[in-house]
Design goal:
Shape: globular
Order of helices and strands: HEHEHEHEHEHEHEHEH
Oligomer: single chain
Number of helices: 9
Structural class: alpha/beta
CATH topology: TIM Barrel
Bound molecules: pyridoxal-5'-phosphate
CATH class: Alpha Beta
Length: 218
């Protein structure tokens, strides 16, 4: 049995069945993606469009794969991402959300998206601070072609497990706070939080989706 298949089977023991495991395949060859598929994985995520498109093309016969875009996205590439990814986790600004909404309207699709937040200051990460997000909700609520489903966060490096758990829990609380405002187009039931180094903490704090690269493919 291949190592990738073994790793996925081990992960399934740890991960509650309601948590969606997304295999992050940046830098991963299509052969390895096919092995993960054979182990039953159907959700895969990519962070760079130039890398993702040729791989999606090669894997075209695997029709039940769901592709997730997880990387920082420039507005000029928005259309291609909307064409190629039914899920976008990394919507990190109002400008990008507006552009994606326009593209979704043109293409008559409604991508599922997460709003990327950073609840602790981190110069290396994109995303809304909680106060900024609260201010932008009324505008986001008008983007009818986006299916805004949740929040996504990436932790800064170097947090202790306790600190990491606190940040993940704050992310969940922010989603609850927004849901209590009853926006017609913002129902945040998904929490995309947890990578190879911190997914157990993410799950503990209520993650519904975890994004694992190294834990599967390294
Ligand atoms: C690379 C990446 C991951 C996966 O990271 P690992 O540490 O390899 O699990 C998850 N989310 C995002 C946004 C990434 O860029």
């Amino acid at each position: 049995m291949s190592l990738i298949i073994q790793k996925i089977e081990q992960l399934r023991q740890e991960i509650p069945p309601n948590v969606r495991l997304i295999g992050i395949t940046k830098g991963v060859e299509v052969e390895a993606i096919a092995q993960a598929y054979d182990a039953g994985l159907r959700d895969f995520g990519e962070s760079r469009l130039q890398e993702a498109i040729p791989k999606q093309e090669q894997l075209k016969s695997y029709q039940d794969i769901t592709w997730h875009f997880i990387g920082h996205l420039q507005s000029r590439k928005a259309k291609k991402v909307v064409e190629s990814f039914p899920w976008i986790h990394s919507v990190d600004s109002l400008k990008l959300a507006e552009r994606l909404d326009d593209c979704a309207r043109e293409l008559s699709v409604s991508p599922r998206v997460c709003l990327q937040v950073k609840l602790v200051p981190d110069p290396n990460k994109y995303g809304w601070h909680s106060q900024e997000l609260i201010q932008d909700l009324a505008t986001l609520n008008q983007y009818q072609h986006l299916n805004i489903q949740g929040l996504m966060t990436i932790l800064p490096l170097g947090l202790s497990p306790t600190e990491a758990l606190t940040v993940f829990k704050s992310t969940r609380e922010l989603a609850q706070q927004i849901n209590q405002q009853n926006w017609s187009n913002l129902r945040l039931s998904e929490l995309s939080m947890g990578m190879s180094g911190d997914y157990l903490l993410g799950i503990q704090a209520g993650a519904t989706m975890i994004r694992l690269g190294r834990a599967i493919f390294l």
